[in-house]
Each structure stands twice: as C-alpha cells, then as structure tokens.
UniProtKB/TrEMBL annotation:
<protein>
    <recommendedName>
        <fullName>ABM domain-containing protein</fullName>
    </recommendedName>
</protein>
<dbReference type="InterPro" id="IPR011008">
    <property type="entry name" value="Dimeric_a/b-barrel"/>
</dbReference>
Length: 209
C-alpha cells in the first residue's frame, strides 16, 4: 500500500471495471478525524486486496460522514474497507452506466456531490439515469459543474450519481437559483425511485497498492 496526497478519484479510468462505495456516519468533526486516523492505521497494516487499483477516502464537509471509493480491475475481491480500523463497513459494488464526462476546457473539480437512489430493479436504474442525463443535455451548463457519472449497483437496487463540482458553494448556488429544479421534478415524479440524502465530499486520503 502506498499513500498519496489526497485527490479525487478519476471515475473515467479505462482500466476500472468495478467500483465499491462504502459510507460511515461519524456524527461530528471530531468523530470524523478519529475515524480517519483509525482507517489510515488499518489500511497501513492490512494486506492489499488483489485487483484493487486505488482506494479514495472522502470526508463530508459537515463532518458527519466518510465515503470510500474503491476502483478495481476486475470483480471486487472484498466488500469491506481494507483494514477498516475496527469500523469496517460493507461497500456496495457498482459499475458505471452512463455519464457526462468533463470536457477539455472544464475547470478542475474541488468536491463531489453524491445523489443516491433506491430503485425497483435494473429497468428503473436505466430509466432514471437516462431521463436525468437526457434532461441535463437540454439545459445551459451550470457554473461550477464539472462532470457527472451514474453508477448502477450490481444487484439492481441502487443508483449513485457521482457529480464533480468546483466547490460546495458552486453547487449550493445552483440549487438556490433553481437551476436544478427540473432534475428534481424528474426524480420525485418517477415511480420506483426513492431519493436518499446526498452530501458534499472533499478528498481526505488516497491509497494505491
């Protein structure tokens, strides 16, 4: 295992076939820092899983949660955080279905905004993803939006939109200015789709095998 300076993962990596995403509720900023310290110790002492290319750890800007993003070159060999530091959480395996990747002139991302949905099967996964991306193509680019990558869980029950923005403030301005209202109407009006809470995440740790 090799620690790197914190950075956001690249969802568009061509050598990645499976992604595992895990979350941990820490409650407070102090709990978040303690959990990060435990994770670092656990990863340092653990055997690196075969096929895991990179493990990114992100911290929510409100101090309440951590997120892991594991990128694998084949089927995920483990569904837990490597090491874990005593609080290993099950991670959900995904594949990227569709996205709106960053263009050549796009600004550098500074945070990730997650939007997750419980859905009633693979058909609903495809439907909500295609509806949101098709709708987004028909509106003006939003200042601060960099890219979007829709992940489908392998069991057909979850959709995760991994959206890169320049900053939490840029996304908050888009929300306040009603720039995302049309997309929210699609989400709330689609049967078999239930939105879960999203968060702003910033890079905290990056590890490679």
């Amino acid at each position: 295992m090799t620690p790197l300076p914190p950075r956001l993962p690249d969802p568009g990596r061509a050598d990645v076939t499976t992604v595992t995403v895990g979350s941990l509720f820490t409650g407070t900023a102090e709990g978040q820092r303690a959990a990060l310290d435990a994770l670092r110790a656990g990863v340092r002492d653990a055997e690196w899983p075969k096929g895991l290319l990179e493990l990114s750890v992100l911290a929510s800007d409100d101090g309440e949660a951590l997120l892991s993003y594991g990128q694998w070159s084949g089927p995920a060999a483990a569904r837990v955080w490597p090491g874990g530091g005593g609080w290993a959480e099950l991670a959900v395996p995904y594949r990227i279905h569709r996205g709106a990747p960053a263009g050549p002139d796009a600004p550098s991302p500074g945070c990730v905004v997650t939007a997750a949905f419980d859905v009633d099967g693979p058909e609903r996964q495809r439907h909500i993803t295609d509806a949101l991306l098709d709708a987004a193509e028909g509106v003006e680019p939003r200042p601060g939006a960099v890219s979007s990558h829709f992940h489908h869980s392998l069991d057909g029950t979850r959709v995760l939109n991994w959206a890169e923005w320049t900053s939490p403030e840029a996304h908050a301005e888009a929300v306040a200015g009603a720039a995302l209202d049309d997309l929210y109407e699609i989400i709330t009006g689609t049967p078999g789709v239930r939105a879960l809470r999203g968060r702003y995440y910033l890079p905290a740790d990056t590890f490679i095998g």
